Amino acid sequence: AQTVTQSQPEMSVQEAETVTLSCTYDTSENNYYLFWYKQPPSRQMILVIRQEAYKQQNATENRFSVNFQKAAKSFSLKISDSQLGDTAMYFCAFSAYSGAGSYQLTFGKGTKLSVIP
Amino acid sequence: KAGVTQTPRYLIKTRGQQVTLSCSPISGHRSVSWYQQTPGQGLQFLFEYFSETQRNKGNFPGRFSGRQFSNSRSEMNVSTLELGDSALYLCASSLAGGAGGEQYFGPGTRLTVT
């Protein structure tokens, strides 16, 4: 079974600064996907960024980038130029095929990020 | 395109009752997954449906069940409700399913069991 661990329950960052959220995972799979999802207060969860395990290059989406260390099973999210709208719960998630096309998302417990004006 | 919709948004039930929650995926999406979100356990996978077939099921008791209709709309049912079933239930749809696909989440149904 896969596990995802987010060791920082809460973090804060000043507006315009950079913050890094940590995530580690455990799996015996070689091909898998990693995600960061964002859940703003009272709003729907949305995908922030996705990383395919077989790609060595770290994924980047505008101000969001990841540091994917496959050997260390680490997948951190860096948010640059933090904005007030980045205030949200951030969930790290793992997914791999488990036979017959089936899969499931396994989530970490989340990191509550507050951006301070 | 309209997003994922879930009905009802809020629900209050008493122990022992049963409840049915509904999820309408984004048009064209054939995969629907359900998750339970609680402060203590976080987000936990319930089950995933694709083309009316359950492809995967999480570690939940048999009181939790679901189905998917030919138009991809999905329902989940919880029978004999317990206090611990109080949670936010999220559904997510994706185009064809698959481990690497983006899942689009609905706003959730907040279930309170008294």
Helix and strand topology:
The complex is a heterodimer of chains A (117) and B (114).
Chain A: E1 3-5, E2 10-14, E3 19-21, E4 24-26, E5 33-39, E6 46-52, E7 60-61, E8 64-69, E9 74-79, E10 88-97, E11 103-107, E12 111-116
Parallel strand pairs in A: 2-12
Antiparallel strand pairs in A: 1-4, 3-9, 5-6, 5-10, 7-8, 8-9, 10-11, 10-12
Chain B: E1 5-7, E2 10-13, E3 19-24, E4 31-38, E5 42-50, E6 53-57, E7 64-68, E8 74-78, E9 87-94, E10 104-105, E11 109-113
Parallel strand pairs in B: 2-11
Antiparallel strand pairs in B: 1-3, 3-8, 4-5, 4-9, 5-6, 7-8, 9-10, 9-11
- In one word, what is the shape of chain B? globular
Indicate the proportion of strand residues of chain A. Answer: over 45%
Task: Quote the distance from N terminus to C terminus of chain A.
Answer: 41 Å
Give the biggest beta sheet of chain A.
Answer: 6 strands, mixed
Describe the structure.
The complex is a heterodimer of chains A (117) and B (114). Chain A has 117 residues and is mainly β. Helix content of chain A is 0%, strand content 54%. Chain A is built from no helices and twelve strands. Chain A has strands spanning 3-5, 10-14, 19-21, 24-26, 33-39, 46-52, 60-61, 64-69, 74-79, 88-97, 103-107, 111-116. In chain A, the strands form three sheets. In chain A, strands 2, 5, 6, 10, 11 and 12 form a six-stranded mixed beta sheet that branches. A four-stranded antiparallel beta sheet of chain A has the order 3-9-8-7, with no helix packed on it. In chain A, a hairpin with a 4-residue loop joins strand 8 (64-69) and strand 9 (74-79). Chain A starts with a strand and ends with a strand. Chain B is mainly beta and 114 residues long. Chain B is 0% helix and 53% strand. Chain B contains no helices and eleven strands. In chain B, strand 4 (31-38) and strand 5 form a beta hairpin. The termini of chain B are far apart. The interface between A and B is medium-sized, with 26 and 25 residues.
